[in-house]
Prior knowledge:
D-Maltodextrin-Binding Protein, domain 2; nine-stranded mixed sheet; 13 helices; binds (2R,3R)-2,3,4-trihydroxybutanoic acid
Amino acid sequence: MTLSRRLALASALLAPMLAPLALTIGAAPAAAQTQFTVQHALPLDSHTGAGAAAFKEAFERLTNGRFRVVPQRNDNEREMIESAQIGTIECLFTSTGPVGNFVPEVRIFDVPFLFRDTAHARGVLDSEIGQAVLARFPARGLMGVIWTENGFRHLTNSRREVNAPADLRGLKVRTMENQVHMRAFTTLGALPTPMAFSELVPALQQGTVDGQENPISVIVANNLNQVQRYMTLTNHVYSPSVMICNPDAVNRLNAADRAHFNEAARAAQKANRDRVTADEQSGVATLRSRGMTVVTQVDTAAFQTALAPAFAEWERTMDAATLRRIRDWRAN
Length: 332
Ligand code: EAX
């Protein structure tokens, strides 16, 4: 058989196989569900899982199933943000831990003792102050969709009961990859070690670090009581989280779907916050029943005084006017 005859035969054999393929590709856009992969850091049975699940339920229902949302767990928050930036995932929920490394303006919300309580934090984040910070995301190739939360962070450790700032001296504490938090722990005399959440449990098990800090919701959902004996309700910083998306994935939605998307994001925010509220009500009792020693009476003013040099620095390096607006904020 000549070469040209062989080629002709091969294409004749392949043609029937390629034809349906071309048809399938041609027909795809009309029939396809558009997939939104939404990553979040913690187990499905947690406040981050609750947010992702609520987004899925609402967005799929409102778009009559034309969109399919696939929640996925990824406990490396920096990696999730990078994935949304390059577009290998559509959306994610992350604490602000690593976000300031992408959108520096976010760091203002990571300042310790900035928010008086949960209502203050949620109110500021939902006000034009929070909106203005979300508006900084597109310049960094990201879309900041809506604020959610982890809650107020507390200290745990395996060495000793921490009652006063002096008890922190020399303690190796894992922090998030967040320069504001690291500065705070250095100022308190601890030795902060930044790492992704995915590395935390092995680091506690192996004794690479003595302690860590996280909200009750995170400590309960991840059974950190198995690797930490002491907890102190330091409330040292409110931990916001944020829904971030790949800008192209959202901008290509038509106006109606964009409205559904926004409504689904609000459903996620509500589910997330409701779950944090519930976890905070039951959390201390749960952790005590799992064997933790929990210090609930804390001299907050002593921690604030110990942080004075760091506060002075943030007044210089951050937007001092916005810091003041946040502190002065009151619900109408
Ligand atoms: O977002 O890294 C952390 O400590 C975060 O609080 C946790 O992963 C949930």
